[in-house]
Design a protein that fits this description.
globular; 89 residues; single chain; two-stranded antiparallel ribbon; 4 helices; 7% strand; mainly alpha
Length: 89
């Protein structure tokens, strides 16, 4: 069971790296940029599985909120306003 938890932690760490990379490569994701919507970050990271019954693409992105909030707490990214767009800090 510990092995699964470790793999999950590694997966979460890799997802954070992907999100940072997506913001670095997006013209609006850099410091002073207008920001990138969470759905765009999600898709640019290749985390969209496509549409499935009871698991539409638009529903899959919501776990990314916690990922973005952790990066925000780490001081790496920020929201442009109290809305959706994110950018590097």
């Amino acid at each position: 069971m510990k092995d699964l938890l470790q793999q999950g932690l590694e997966l979460r760490s890799k997802a954070k790296e992907l999100a940072i990379s997506a913001l670095q490569k997006h013209p609006d994701g850099n410091k002073n940029g207008k920001g990138v919507k969470q759905a765009e970050v999600f898709r640019h990271c290749g985390l969209d599985w496509g549409d499935y019954p009871k698991a539409l693409s638009t529903q899959q992105q919501y776990w990314v909120v916690a990922l973005l909030r952790e990066l925000e707490a780490d001081g790496i990214i920020e929201q442009v306003e109290d809305k959706v767009p994110w950018r590097l800090k």
